[in-house]
Amino acid sequence: TIAAAVSLVTDEFAAQSMRETEVRMLFHAIMLIVTLVLVVWSMTKVRQTANSLFKQKELAEVTLHSIGDAVITTDGAARVEYLNPVAEQLTGWKTQDASGKLLAEVCVLIDGVTRTPEPNPVERCLRERRVVGLSSNVVLVARDGKEYIIEDSAAPIRDREDNIVGAV
User: Fold this and answer.
1) 142 within 8 A of 148, measured Cβ to Cβ
2) How many CB atoms lie within 10 A of CB 128?
């Protein structure tokens, strides 16, 4: 009969539609699993990279703290970013107080003979894009007015693309 034929066609269409839906659902489930695996793998790689960078940063900080010379780093505008403990002791500035200030304000340099201001070696280093040194008889005037005869040099800090991003 016609009703039985229509029912048979409808059942076949429904079965085919179910199979197609099951295939699509299986495809989407596989894609979801692949996506989750990639997310977990990516997060693991990000975590490993972050841990590696943290270890490198810690090593750099320990190294800078261990150096017996004063070390000051600046950004590309000669603003202080970091002072190691020796630099803090000589200048009388703590890193958190000096951070963001122009180096010339934190590291006051004068000629020991004429008592005239010395040019800032970091500004010269950044301008000339090379390592520069100070002349002899340079005196560092600390925040509290104490004076120290120093030898000084400044070197540019470069990023991976060889752009100067600061000085040390």
Assistant:
1) yes
2) 11
Q: Is 74 exposed, middle or buried (0-12, 13-18, 19+ CB in 10 A)?
A: buried
Spatial CB neighbours of 97, under 8 Å, sequence gap ≥ 6: none
Read off the pLDDT of residues 47-70 as tens digits, 9 standing for 90 and up: 999 999 999 888 888 887 778 899
Closest CA to 149 of 123, 113, 120, 101: 113
- State how far the Cα of 33 lies from the Cα of 129, in Å rounded to an integer: 52
* Beta-sheet strand order (sheet of 164-167): 80-83, 72-75, 164-167, 156-158
pTM of the full structure: 0.67
Q: What is the DSSP string of the chain?
A: -HHHHHHHHHHHHHHHHHHHHHHHHHHHHHHHHHHHHHHHHHHHHHHHHHHHHHHHHHHHHHHHHH-SS--EEEETTSBEEEE-HHHHHHH---HHHHTTSBHHHHSEEEETTT-PBPPPHHHHHHHHTS-EE--SSEEEE-TTS-EEEE--EE-EEE-TTS-EEEE-
Tokens standing for 17?
A: 């539609």
